[in-house]
Amino acid sequence: MLGNLSLDESSLASDGSNLTDLALETLSIHLTAMEPFRPLLLLPGSALFVLLEKKILPQVTALVAEFYSAHPQEGPLLLFSNVDQWVGVYIEYKFQTPVGTHLPGLANYLARNIMDPAVQKSSIMANGEKAELVLCEVWLQILDQLFTEALKDKTSPKSRKLRGQLTRWLTAILRPLRPFGQVVLKFQPAPARAVLQGCVLQGLRALWEAEGLSVKMVIPDLGQPDTSISCYAVALIILGLLFIALILVLVWKRKTCFGVSSQTRYPEDQHPPWVSPLFLQLLTQGPEQAKD
Fold first, then answer.
1. Residue 7 lies in a domain
2. What parts of the sequence cross the membrane (predicted)?
3. Residues 29 and 119 both lie in one domain
């Protein structure tokens, strides 16, 4: 027994090409087709496999050949898998001559030029490079339908019908925006607050139709900080300023009455009608003595 032997990878060759050359000749692509996954897609040669192969493979192959200005070998490796009830697609191409498959840009090129709406552009990866897309998330609430588990099942007729309707209309609305990629939908239960608001909106529409009374629902922004504290603080500041102004006026009047004009003096147990005894004590003795 010779035991474990080390292998010099640079010594491996096939038809005159070493591993480095073979790596330059190989290209792998991953993407997700937004089609319901069926177990028969795992069997190459099945009717479902061939149907999806004819839909996906030609458009991807044409773009790869256009990007590298070289045609890959015929019969690339094609595998399908289950990706959250959609179809995961793996394609591996071989080229007759070395090409720069390690160079970046193919994933973005595929995302820009694949026009099949079934191909999820954000899922495209080419040799480990992911397509760079800006994802914008929008939440919509369907008011006249209740959420059911059938909507979460991408293979159910109800989910496919509603997904198709919304995708067509949203695509038509957003297509004028440039650049625009595609719409990808995901169904889930609406939050309790959204359900309540939807019920109220429906009721207000019924009120308008039945009674002619127009009522608008105003939704406070619960995400903003409460401003009642700051308003209360402002009110206290204003009251404090008014209090100081009142004290200054009283001091000025006292000087005028007792120090300047020598007008009528009040006995010690009597006070001018515009000064309360408490204020007089504060002015003449200070707050510490006024507490006694």
1. no
2. 232-252
3. yes
Torsion of CA 37, 184, 138, 172, to 10 degrees: -140
Percent residues over pLDDT 90 in the chain: 26
Convert the pLDDT of each residue in 100-129 to its tens digit.
767 789 999 999 999 888 899 999 999 889
100 and 27 share a domain? yes
Q: Which of 28, 33, 29 is nearest to 48 (CA)?
A: 33
Q: Alpha-carbon distance 88 to 82, whole Å? A: 6
List the structure tokens of 26: 């190989």
Gap between the Cα atoms of 159 and 36, Å rounded: 11
CB-based contacts of 102, cutoff 8 Å, min separation 6: 23, 24, 127
Instruction: Give pLDDT tens digits for 12-34.
Output: 555 555 555 555 578 999 999 99
pTM over 0.90: no
Same domain, 251 and 278: yes
**Over pLDDT 70: what percentage of the chain?**
67
Last residue of a domain, one of 211, 237, 252: 211
Which residue has 């209309």 as its token pair?
169
Same-domain status, 77 and 47: yes
Quote the CA–CA distance of 181 and 163 in Å, as a whole number: 17
Would 242 be classed as within a structural domain?
Answer: yes
Q: Is it the case that residue 286 has pLDDT exceeding 50?
A: no
Q: How many residues does the chain have?
A: 292
Kindly give, in sequence order, each residue whose CB lies less than 8 Å from that of residue 71, ignoring residues fewer than 6 positions away.
65
Beta bridge partners of 232: none
Within a domain: residue 143?
Answer: no
Count: domains in the chain: 3
Instruction: Retrieve residue 46's tokens.
Output: 């099945």
Is 137 part of a structural domain of the chain? no
Site of tokens 């359900």: 195
Pair 42, 92: CB distance under 8 Å = no
Q: What CA–CA distance (Å, rounded) separates 131 from 91?
A: 16
